[in-house]
Design goal:
- This protein is an alpha+beta fold and about 180 residues long.
- The protein has one domain (about 5-10, about 25-165): Roll (Thiol Ester Dehydrase, Chain A), CATH 3.10.129.
- It is about 30% helix and about 30% strand.
- It has five helices and six strands; from the N terminus they run αβααβββββαα.
- The protein has helices spanning about 5-15, 45-60, 65-70, 140-145, 155-165, and strands at about 25-30, 75-85, 90-100, 105-115, 120-130, 135.
- Strands 1, 2, 3, 4, 5 and 6 form a six-stranded antiparallel β-sheet that branches.
- Strand 5 (about 120-130) and strand 6 (about 135) form a beta hairpin.
- Helix 1 (about 5-15) packs parallel to helix 2.
- It is globular, with a radius of gyration of 17 Å.
């Protein structure tokens, strides 16, 4: 079940947070709880994605009213996650979340989880702002959020991921 209590808690924590500007990094703290464990007694990969969701909330909620006023929605259009270290029950997870770049359609977010100073996981997300007509251009989104918001050029490793995603067949072949 989706962690609605955690979600409400994160919204409560960040309801008055200042807006992040451009590619500023947001730092948050989370914990691996007993109901987050898999059969190997480590953080379940599905719960990992839910905790990453919680870490992205401040990025979204700080400018939520601007997006909501336009009747825009937010969606994840792709992701790539690396798991490198086991996270055990009651481990304190320090997360870093930031927008790292954008192209014409998508804004790319980067997140990492750190436990006792060691990177346990890293995620790259392709996100989109949508309306009833489809995807809203990033130029329009950034203009709505403020004229002082800019994002860096697309890093080589993100560009390579974008190219790989474009090579991937869609829809996948049915067998």
């Amino acid at each position: 079940m989706y962690p609605f209590v955690r979600l409400a808690w994160q919204f409560c924590l960040h309801r008055n947070a200042a807006s992040l500007r451009g590619s500023e990094t947001y730092h948050s703290t989370h914990y691996c709880l007993p109901w987050d464990l898999d059969i190997w007694l480590e953080l379940n990969n599905g719960c990992t994605l839910s905790i990453y969701d919680m870490g992205r909330l401040p990025i979204v909620t700080t400018d939520h009213l601007k997006v909501k006023r336009r009747r825009w929605g937010l969606t994840i259009a792709g992701s790539s996650v690396r798991y490198r270290k086991r996270i055990r029950v009651f481990d304190k997870i320090k997360m870093q979340s930031r927008a790292i770049c954008a192209d014409r359609q998508f804004i790319y977010l980067e997140q990492s989880m750190w436990v006792r100073g060691i990177c346990a996981g890293h995620a790259l997300y392709r996100t989109a702002v949508t309306n009833s007509g489809g995807i809203v251009s990033t130029d329009q989104v950034l203009a709505e959020l403020g004229p002082d918001i800019t994002l860096p050029q697309i890093p080589d490793w993100v560009e390579a991921w974008i190219v790989a995603e474009d090579l991937r067949p869609w829809p996948p072949m049915q067998t």
